[in-house]
Structures are given as structure tokens and as C-alpha cells.
Amino acid sequence: MAILLGVDTGGTYTDAVLLDEGSDTVLASAKSLTTRPDLALGVGRAIDTVLAQSGALPNQIAMVSLSTTLATNALVEGQGGRVALVFIGFDQAELSRAGLTEALAGDPVVLLAGGHSHAGNEVAPLDLDALTAGLADLPEGLTGFAVAASFATRNPAHEIAARDLIREITGKPVTCSHELSSALGGPKRALTAVLNARLIGMIDRLIGACEGHLTKIGITARLMVVRGDGALVSAELARERPIETILSGPAASIAGASWLTGETDALVSDIGGTTTDICLLRDGKPKIDPQGARVGPFRTMVEAVAMRTWGLGGDSDVQVQDGLSGGLRLGPRRLCPVSLLAQQHPGLVHDALDRALTQDAPPEEAGRFVIPHWEAAPEGLDKRESRVMERLANGPVRLQDAVQTRVEGPALERLVKRGAVMIAGITPSDAAHVLGQLDAWDKLAAHKALTLFARRRMGGGDRIAKGADDLARMIIDQLTRQTAQYLLEAAFAEDDFDWGDQPMGNLARHPLMQAGLARHQGVVRINAGLNVPVIGLGASAQNYYGAVGTALHTPTILPAHGGVANAIGAVVGQVSMHESGTVTSAGEGVFVAHLPDGPKRFGEAEAAMSALTQALEDIACDKARAAGVEEIRLTFDREVKAAEIEGKTMFVEATIKVAAQGRPRIALN
Fold first, then answer.
1. Which residue from 296, 327, 331 is spatially nearest to 312, judged by alpha carbons?
2. Is the peptide bond before 242 cis (omega within 30 degrees of 0)?
3. At how many degrees (to 10) do helices 128-136 and 157-170 cross?
4. Structural domain tally of the chain?
5. Of residues 281, 309, 282, the one with CA closest to residue 294
6. What's the pTM?
7. Which of the four, 270, 330, 362, 412, has the lowest number of CB atoms within 10 Å?
8. Mean pLDDT throughout 45-49?
9. Number of neighbours of residue 650 by Cβ within 10 angstroms
10. Residue 103, domain extent
11. CATH code for the domain of 138
12. Could you give the CA distance from residue 301 to residue 244 in angstroms, rounded to a whole number?
């Protein structure tokens, strides 16, 4: 029989599942803590556990597929490697468009003369001497480069030349914007390239960890990776284009939800350690976002499921809201739960909490810790960052021991954003331990940490809560409220009704909506709720989502194996390679096919479109074959724009899309 191995690496857990392809049954599933910096440990433990549970042998594994939320989490939390953008043919003002400045987050930019016109003609020569000089002036510690040139999708020559020179001089990975999207919109393509470059090291480490363990235990089956639209791609392609793995984990979860429940119409909500990901399942399929995947504040040019992602998870930071009455807010930052850190470093955590509990008014940083997450200290640290890192040389420490002066606080924040360190503090996972909903880690440490936090004062002077149990219930209630809020926002956004210009969040919070959810019965009677069920996925959904369904007056479906739905979805998908391009008119009787290797002129529109279609088909089929597809299904889409001028139909532009699809070859030994 063919056995398929699915692996999903999230911020907190790495899941593994074995499926019997013939009978469509789950043979075994397991969870292991995601281990940073050495991801191979968590991946290996999860894989080894499912093999041991099922009795399956390594040579029986016919395919391995990997999904992950690491890329999504990194973008939500503003983490990733430090990169430089080479911006060709644009001026400084263009950096303020499409969120590019926010995505760069202070990383350097090299502005160069060059670029092409809408028709693919060179506007100005590429200044490679200026590029060489710019590279020499860049700071140390960069992990990669992004290159974006004006109208590179119409002619990629300048991006390719810059890429080759950067690789020759630096030896670092380089991402060209035209490799990620064929659409116009230079700043948005640049944003996508920057995020891709930022993620390369992280995804390469994950794939390498998985490949290394598979080789170690004798599994020779092909490794696939889930893309953000739910399709499978080769590990080699995922290494080059890690941006395409954003929403990989959620996309796999949607496929897993459909497979596990058989539901065709539902809101699927997947709660992980860092994020809650919500998607509408319609007629058994998720919708693809036509504007490109949105993650956190960024709208990319990556094709992905129409997933809405919020920074809310089982490991979300618990914050006290400003104001006299206080209140709690969860996320968007993920923390290491105190109960988890205490399991790994009991002496450090309990000693620190016990000391802080002797104080009637402990400082806000009491109960927080800093954890190093590096194999080798990152390059390019300033003096303050280096001092913080030196204090972490022997492992986690209390926050007040890691940051000893006010000016070192921003240095710690920069290290967190680079993924070099992580903060530990109280989270919903700790609250669940206090209430007896979870028992995986150190309950006593969770109780001490929540007791300490409850002593903090709100703006009006009152304590946040009477004690640990009261605070734990407040945290879980807040998680329910925020989850219900996000589900309502997603539902309003997906509904066919014209809601006007109102932001979906405003509609979800509107007093009339809240009155309807409360089943108001006065002179006016108002009822409201969701009209589709909620499928709750994720390890903690069983603990939290019953109350969410009650709040929204809709059934909540919590499937068996819902905690590993992402790993299941990873192996039930198909390979789907998409390529697209354009044909433009350069004047009467002149048609330009913007081919992957540059523009080519034709005398007839049909000839140009045929040449482009064939080039795209060749590329898509080559990629599908490289991913192991033997029986390829091709689909074509042609959109031609024309205009009526003086009673004559004139060709304006054509967009050609080709998809090569199929199941990857299943290796039977």
C-alpha cells in the first residue's frame, strides 16, 4: 500500500500524520514542539512518532509533503532576515507606495538609473558601476537582496543583469520581482520581492531540516511543499520562492478540513500558536484571492487562498488596554508560554516568579524572560544589541537581566524582529493550564505567572483581577471575543450583500450587530448570527471554539484529527504550476509578446499570443514534471482587451494564463 507522510511546522508545534492513500484513512498522527534554532529536532520527533505508532517502515513512505506557518508568522510579527532592495528606474517617492517602506523596516535601498517602458523598451541604461559602489557601502549582516526594476515584467533584462552582478560580488541569495509575478505595479512587486528575500533563510533551514531527517531514517520519497493556494510544489522551487509558502499552513488546513468533515459550505477557522486564519469554504473549495495574499499589513502579489489572518493564537501576548477600566487585548505578538519555558528551565522560571511574588507591586517586566534563538550570533549587531546577546550566552534569563538600561529596550525589540531572541510571558495557553483545559506543561508556573500579572493595576488604580483563576477566565473570554469578532469580519467580507464603504471591522462591532447577537427583545427585536457553520481547527480549538459557536449562534464542527488538519491537507493536494504573461500593441500592425526571456515583436496578434502561450506552457510543464507529475492536465485562460476607435476594433492588450496540474508521482517500492 502507498503511505503518505504529511508534516506541518508551526510556531509552537510540528505535526506529522500518516495516510493510507488507498483507504483514505489516518494511520497515525503526532505532535512535537517546534524546536528553534534546530528545526530538525522537532520535525524528527514528529516523524519518528508516527512511524512508531503505525509500525510503517521508511521504505513504505511513497510521498512526503510539508506545510508551514513559519513564513506567515514571520511576516505577521515583522521578523526575517535583513535584506537590501535594489530599486531600478524608480525615484525615492515610490518607496512610500504599497507599504514598501514599512516592509523594508529600515533596511537599505540602492536606487539606480535604468528600467524599461510599458512596451519593454529601455528607458535608460542600467548603471552597473553605481550598483557596484552601492554594494560596497551596504552594512554587514545582510542575508539577501531583492531587485525590482521599472516594467521588469515587460522586459526583465535589467533585473537579470543586476542579479548576476550581486551574486558575483556578494554570493548572497537574490530575488528578482519578475520571477514572482507577471503583473504591473513596481512598488508592489518590490514589496513581494523584499518579503521573499527576507524569508529565504528561514524556509531553507526548514526544508533542510526535513530533508536531513528523512535521509537519516531512510525515507527516499519525494519531498513536496504546500504553496499558499493549496497546491504542491517541489522543495527546490519552495527554496527559491519562499514567499509562495505564506498561508501554506492555512491552505493545507482548508484542504484538511474539507477532507475531514465533508462540509462544502462553512467558515474554517484555524487557531495556531501565533495566528488565527479564517477562510470561507464554498462548494467544497476555498476562494483564491484575486488581489494577492494579504498577511498582516502587507498585500503581496502571491496567489493564495482568500485567507484572512489575524495575530491571535494560543501563544499570543496578553496586554492590558489603556484607560481607566483597563481590559485585556491579545496579540499580535507571539510569546513563549511561561508554562512551556518552566518545563524546560524550571529553576530559572520558578525562582524568578517566587521572588517577584514577594512584592506587592512588582514591576511590569516581572514574569517575563528572554530566550536566545540562534545557532551563531547574527552578523551586523550594534553595541547595545551585542551587550544583550552576551547576557544570553548561557541560555534564557529574566527580562530585567537581559535589558539593564532604558536604551537597551529598542535593541531587544530589534533582536526579536530578526528572530534572534524570543520573549516568554503569559499567554492563553498558560490560562488554559490554570483552568485545567491543558496539562502539557508546567501548570504551577502558569498559576504563579498569572497571579503575578493579576496584581498589576489598571488606569483607575484597581487590580486587573482577583487572582490567577479570575485572570485565566478573563483571558479565555477575551480570546473568544476576538475570535468571534474576526469570524464576523470575514463573514461580512465574503457576503454578497452591498455593505457600502463601511470597514468590515466596524460592521462586526456595530451596536446593532452586537444587539442582534445578544438577541435583543425590546420595542425592536433584533436577531443576528452566522448562516454557515464554523469548522474549528488547531490543537486548541477543542478548548476554545465551543463558546465561539455559541456567541455567533451557529454550529461549531470540531473534527477528529482537527489538530493535525494542516498535515493531512499537505498530502491530499495536487501540483499546480501557473504561468502568465501579456501581449501588447506597439502600434498598428505591431504586437509584442512579453516572453520570459524578453519582448518579441510580431505582425499579427494571434501569432504573438500563440508564441506566448507556447512559452508559458513549456515553462509550466517543465515545473510540473520537475515536481513529479507524469499525467499533466493543462488549462488555458486568455483575456483580450480591445477598444472601438472610429468604428474599428483595435487590439489593446492580452493576458495569457497557463496552468499545468496533476498529482505528483507516488513512489511504490
1. 331
2. no
3. 40
4. 2
5. 309
6. 0.72
7. 362
8. 95
9. 11
10. 81-201
11. 3.40.50
12. 9
